[in-house]
Amino acid sequence: MTPTVRPGATPPDAVTAMLDARSVAVVGASPRPDSFGHRMVVEALRSRVPVHLVNPRYADVDGLPCLPSVAAVGRPVDLVLLGVGDHAVAAELAAAAAAGARSAVVFGSAHAAGLRDRLSSTARAAGMALCGGGWPWSVPR
Questions:
Q1: pLDDT tens track of the chain, all 141 residues?
Q2: Residue 120: which domain range?
Q3: Residue 18 within any structural domain of the chain
Q4: Could you tell me the sign of the dihedral formed by the alpha carbons of 58, 23, 70, 11, in that order?
Q5: CATH number, residue 23
Q6: Displacement of CA 88 from its chain's centroid (Å)
Q7: Which candidate, 27, 36, 119, places its Cα nearest to that of 73?
Q8: pTM
Q9: Which of 44, 15, 41 is nearest to 138 (CA)?
Q10: Domain tally for the chain?
Q11: What span, in angstroms and rounded, lies between the C-alpha atoms of 64 and 40?
């Protein structure tokens, strides 16, 4: 039986992609040991799934290849971890959606005027599960 999804709701498989990800992209990956981007890399690598590091500033992070964009992964990922500032998060989420990502977590505050609405709109249009930015919103409305 296929579950009924109300119009505008995130499909259940997108939520599953977030909670049981089979591949992860870390946007904002950094080689600087004191940075949030490096901490995300360390934690993501603790999983047993393929992890793709993304930051156009670096060719590698701790000896692992670092890609310039989520699109450069070459195939959709289940979960995108967005460790970038408010100035870049909307563009990075849009790029992840365009690359076929199924879900994303925003680690920034997303307090810029209208930013939460833009992020919600992008996720809704792409059928992505989304959470973070200082509040839970795993099912955008």
A1: 333 344 455 667 888 888 889 999 999 999 999 999 999 999 999 999 999 999 999 999 999 999 999 999 999 999 999 999 999 999 999 999 999 999 999 998 888 888 988 999 999 999 999 988 765 544 444
A2: 12-129
A3: yes
A4: negative
A5: 3.40.50.720
A6: 12
A7: 27
A8: 0.86
A9: 15
A10: 1
A11: 14
